[in-house]
Amino acid sequence: MISRERGRRLASFTCGVLALIAASTAPSAVEPARARGFTLRVGYQPYYAEAWAGVIVRGLGLYKRHLPAGDRVTFSVGLKGATVLVSALRRGDVDLAYLGLEPTLAVTQDLKHGDFRIIAVSAVSKRLCNVIVARPGAPPMNSPAALRWLAGKRIAVPRGSCAELFLDDVLARADVQPARIFNQSIDMLAASLELHAVDAVAVWEPTATELVQAAGARRLIDGNAIDESGAAFVVARASLLKHHAALVKDYLAAERAAELLLARGGAEAPVLERIESRESDLPRSVVHTAWWGEPGSPPPATFPFIITPEVSRMLRGAAARMAARRLLKSPTLRAGTVDDELARAILAREEAGR
User: Do the beta carbons of residue 198 and residue 173 sit within 8 Å?
Assistant: First the structure.
């Protein structure tokens, strides 16, 4: 059985990684007015690979390179998934957070809990959140038999997560009905598989790889099976953009630097293998395999940073599916869902410097 010690802080990355960071940090000609001495509170998930840029922003201290004296950033760690960060956003305990597709829509479409906006895209991937792993003896990965195999099976998934949305989509595409779907926290999944309480679990990386390597599971389905991508987003309260736009822009510049590091890390250095975490006992083999996959696998993610037409279609499609399942009141994205103007300014500066 997998054992974890959660609740401790991430250690710093090795100095060798620092040399890989791009130095595109010059200020633009026109910057928003700044309110000095503000502390930005950021929520992130170290066990959510699609948003590992947030881990790198903190672990490498990238925000310190961009924020001027007087402004600070503090971090809240959502060890048990997005539901913790969603609650923190709604309570006002954090100002911005890294969330997957379903949690992002749940937060931004419900004005009853506050006005929240998508301000950037952290990563887009077909296999970093969209993963179903199964007990030994399941069919080959992404095969037609793998989709049919889910019929009549017991499946566990953390509710309110990107994995739940993917599981629902897989079942709909395969036109199969499981015996039962259990709502289980991420800490329960390994035990459920090992004790044969469930036949499969829908989850995200690096937990999927951890289950394969330590709990004897096998990868059954990912987003490549149904050509479906997921994404991680940076979500913030609208009032933060109104009153502290310059600080948000500075933080997003650090986020973009982390994304560029992830995008080129495999070519320049085994970046992810250098992560030393005091939050878990994940071996480096889990971190590496979760990100890069098996030898010959395509790149794990793309990093558009802004809401591209592809990401916009993803959001609209997910909203429609969530509304059909009564997870949202309306299938139409509300006005103001996306506010990526600051991210677009950073991306334009990056492209101008090439």
Answer: no
Two structure tokens written together for 332:
């139409």
- Return d(Cα 306, Cα 92) in angstroms, integer: 25
Is 182 within 8 Å of 155 (Cβ atoms)? yes
Which one-letter amino acid corresponds to residue 225? A
* Secondary structure of residue 23 in the 3-state scheme: coil
Asked if CATH classification 3.40.190.10 holds for the domain at 15-125+230-352, the reply, yes or no, is: yes
pLDDT tens-digit profile of 150-199? Answer: 999 999 999 888 899 999 999 999 999 999 999 998 889 989 998 999 99
Which pTM value belongs to this model? 0.85
Q: Where in the chain is the domain with CATH 3.40.190.10?
A: 15-125+230-352, 131-225
Residue 209: how many CA atoms within 13 Å on its side-chain side? Answer: 21
In angstroms, what is the C-alpha Rg of the chain?
20
The burial class, CB within 10 Å (0-12 / 13-18 / 19+), for 330 is exposed
CA dihedral sign of residues 201, 204, 208, 210: negative
Question: Which residues are registered as beta bridge partners of 53?
Answer: none
